[in-house]
Amino acid sequence: MKLRITLIILFVGQLLLSKAQLPILPINSNYLLCKTPIVNEAFNRIEYPQNLDKLFNKLVQLKTNPSVINIVQIGDSHTQPDFISSVVRYQLQQQWGDAGRGIVFPYKLANSNAPADVQSSSNINWQFSRIAKPDTNGSYGVAGFEIYTNNEAANVSFSLNNKNNLQYFETVKVFSDTASQWQLKPQGDTIFTPHFYKNGVFQFSFPKPISAFTLSSINNTTTKKIYGFSLEKNNTGIRYHNIGVNGAQYKQYNASMLFWQQLSILAPDCIIVSLGTNEAQKNDLNIDSFKLAVKTFIDSARAIAPQASVMITTPANSLKGGRTNPMIVQINKAINEVCMANNIPLWDFYKAGGRTPLYWIKKGLMAKDHLHFNKEGYLLQGQLLYNALATAFNNYLTTKIEGK
After folding, report:
1. 224 with 343, same domain?
2. Each residue of 216-232: pLDDT tens digit?
């Protein structure tokens, strides 16, 4: 009898201890104290969250079984500067560990805007293209861009803003093509050759952390292509990749076979899709065709990463010709219908942001074109997205873990 009571006490004690160790995520509501009575808190949530259970279970397991979880956010000009994703990345990595910056691209060499922490230069002028403005011969890899040249002495110098010594990496994966050959030199004189190569991806690893490198072509006159770099730490935790292309639409990502092939190499555990703004600029958009494009994107994501949770976010409202864009309403309705029909988790920023851009404009959170946001506006969106994810995760702990 005493043994039975002792075993029960031990079991209950272990159960309480395991619950106490569950990684409840903090919700940051500081933004409510400043410029943002515009936020509709009741709608800042994840609809249809059940298909995030796979991701949430992996997050729970991270505390006892360290690994790397890859989250990929894919979008357009709202995501390219990395403001939104940087907020989510930082807070998730604070909780579970920093496994690296993930996918980046030398945007300056493609004549495009780069995130604040990304710097690039070269000894030549590269030709370039992007998924949103495809040329007849273009191929668009994991970052939605390409730069290419047949200059045999071409190089790319790349660095991360090494603020507080946190922006470092120990592995670089160069997404290129099968005809190219590369060598890489970090700070210093040592030249590294790739120790792993497969399907156009060259992997370089270093004995100590670095934050900058120069990638050089090994002399040949074949056309050399670069589609992006994945910057990775040896740590376990979260690797939050941000992919954004100015002007991009669902159908353009759908059409790029190479994009999907290279995306699969990242082994995503979660894919967050933030598109729809550019489709809404068309007055003659066929909504049925748009819904098919959204569904095709979802199907492609599931095909290359069956282990991943797929989540969609809606575009914010905006002005067009000085008035609220009526197509935004139809776009968001269509996205909601696709998510509901396919049980896809949805963060409806259109509703959470108050449905109208006028309040955001009055509070000084939008750019002058009243389509994009300024840095502060995007950082607020990132905090809202993180809070919605954190709330869904905490609800998962309560209902799926503690409720057992």
Report:
1. no
2. 998 777 889 999 999 99
